[in-house]
Amino acid sequence: MIEEYLPLIIMLVLGFGVAVLFLYLAEWLGARRTTHGKQTTYESGMEPLGTARDRFSIKFYMVAVSFIVFDIEVVFMYPWAVQVGELGLVAFWTMTVFMLILFAGYFYELKKGGFEWD
Amino acid sequence: MNDIVWIIVEAVAKVLFLVLILQLTAAATVYLERKISAFIQIRVGPNRVGPWGTLQPFADVLKLFLKEDIVPKAADKFFHSLAPIISLGIALAVWAVIPFGDYFMIGDRKIMLGVAPDVNIGVLYVLAMTSLGVYGITLAGWSSNSKYSLLGGLRSSAQMISYELSMGLSLLAVVMMASSFSLNDIVAIQEGWGGWKWNIFLQPVGFFIFLTAAFAETNRAPFDLPEAEPELVGGFNTEYSGMKFGMFFLAEYANVATSSALISLIYLGGWALPFSPEAIGMQEGSILFALLQTLVFVLKVIFMIFFFVWVRWSIPRFRYDQLMYLGWKVLLPLSLLNALVTAAVIVFAI
Lengths: 118, 350
Prior knowledge:
The complex is a heterodimer of chains A (about 120) and B (about 350).
Chain A: H1 2-29, H2 36-39, H3 59-82, H4 84-112
Helix pairs in contact in A: 3-4
Chain B: H1 2-40, H2 56-66, H3 77-93, E1 103-106, E2 109-112, H4 122-143, H5 147-178, H6 183-188, H7 199-202, H8 204-217, H9 229-232, H10 242-267, H11 287-312, H12 320-349
Antiparallel strand pairs in B: 1-2
């Protein structure tokens, strides 16, 4: 168990380590000649109007909510998928019913216009 | 105890080598993209730095290291620095479960080609890491406190999570066939029949769904709306400069290489060769045979990278509503049906 996962953890730590190292190297090597103009937010050469901490379209929230719903359903399917041959008929029909319910929800959201983007 | 020490030594050596190779791969991918783009447009492309311009990407990265790191006054400093770390760290860490070949023997020790290719959660790990990759881009867009960055970040995250579903569901069908999450097992089921057992032939619908999702996940043309230059300047990385920008750049190209590697492994037979080592007079577990497997794998990856660039200059950019239409109304139900049909075939026919 540990023999298999240890290299994975080492890779994660060193992968992020390299990224942090890059940041420090850049800070150490990079030029430092900052002016007021450089530090302003870019807005095509204009003085920025207001901030970006503003309200934005509700559609992005809709996508996020739909994603969470469907993603959790997909996660339920993985344990079944690995064993689909061994689990056989009962599990297959159970999952078919599960997917039909999922499709019902999908068509409900489709008809309600949850996936429209205009 | 002694065993654990050896495992750590082997893992650290492999990881350091792999991280180095990945930087080179990202650089090589940048070079390939620029050169192929140039040939498609009847230009010459980079040809000044080094032979045929091959050193151009290294010169670029070196330059980015020496550039000033500008952080806008309005930005959230901590998250502004965290975002590129997440992006690059994730892009490197995914490679832990990717096998480059089967294995070779040094004395009695079996050395796997890859950091942890036999881990039994390979595919899940890849999906988890690509999901985490969204954080890097979302945080970059939000923390910059610029309208262009915010819009680019929002678009990017919405696009990535939309296509992640279809990607996961198309992988579900492959996992059913292999009865395993390990990428090595998925390669193993594709061996034989002279290449006709590749998943591209057995899972054609899944392949096209995965391919489309891979383009969307890497934010590349025709789905490069997050950085649509004419309207959003540079998207989520508008306010980044110096090496922080370079890190996003490296991460993006490392992700292209990752997607190419995944497509080769899952659908194109990976490192599997159509003959056994004995057939060409080599021993089971010889280093040369392992190198041959790696060579085949690398060639497939290079072809997929070429394909990515080819598509970029062949298909115009989608509109955002078309992108959402394709993701939610076409690919999602299609990939669900594909998974169900695959399960039915496995349960009833085999």
